[in-house]
Amino acid sequence: MEKIDIKTFDSILPLKNSPLIHCITNDITIETVANTILYIGGKPIMSGDSREFRSLFQTTDALFLNMGRMSETHEKNLKLASQLAYQTKKPMVVDMVGYGITQQRLDLGNEIINTHPAIIKGNSSEMRRIVGLPTSARGIDRSEQDNQDNTVFELIQALKVVAKHQPETVFVATGPIDIVVKGNQCVRLNNGVSLLDRFVGTGDIVGALMTTLLGAGYDAWTSSLFSLSYLNIAGEQAFSKAKGHGIENFRQTFMNELYVLSSHKDWVNDIRPVPS
Ligand SMILES: Nc1ncnc2c1ncn2[C@@H]1O[C@H](COP(=O)(O)OP(=O)(O)OP(=O)(O)O)[C@@H](O)[C@H]1O
Ligand SMILES: Cc1ncsc1CCO
Ligand SMILES: [Mg+2]
Q: Which of 29, 36, 199 to mutate to test ligand 2, by most ligand atoms within 8 A of the CB atom?
């Protein structure tokens, strides 16, 4: 069964309840992540100091974990925060940046998976490693080979097997086609432009959007489908406005669209699920 209910999407933004989102993320894209949350009506709090996690948890609405830039402290922080989220049932999204490229990222990722995040996301190569499929990707990037028709099909099948054992979690694999799997349900989304891949942090932005929606009270399935569509359609709008003016111009126009689209309702008409 493939289910996508876009009828409800046009009333989601701007958010009415300003959810407070605790982010433990990488310092490469930390400002972009914070601004993304603000642009759609959330409130970011970026804290990587474990001494304050317990008291912060009393006021936050959702938690965003991003493995991005590893350090001993970051690793400890992510472990502690994901345990706390599990114990306190805090809605949590984890971005598995570089899962499996080193032993440290493999072990950390596995520990976090065991704390049952609402959404586990990564690019298609990271998600292939999670389900035990081979990939030739290096570093934190995707490999083009992991986005062909046959490899996308293979990844969906493998994700469904893993999702069966963790039925409450939504698994998201990003790329030119985004894949969203929960239990036996799967949706593929086909929006976006290739320039989204030419600057750093697009995946981190998707994670920030998803966590903000979760914090506002939407379920993990809706939060995932909405965020992927919203980001990619912002990318399409930016492309039509800023094409030919260079990558930095595109990036700024795209960030601006993340704000501008929040008060336009008709963007939902551009959502393009891949027919099953
Ligand atoms: N070539 C593309 N065509 C369409 N959409 C794309 C393309 N590349 C990226 N995107 C969109 O950008 C978002 C991020 O995807 P991507 O797989 O590039 O994340 P990532 O590798 O984690 O990024 P980063 O490491 O820069 O944070 C996805 O929602 C995806 O749809
Ligand atoms: C370039 C880079 N290296 C580790 S994290 C990161 C940003 C990706 O999100
Ligand atoms: Mg990423």
A: 29
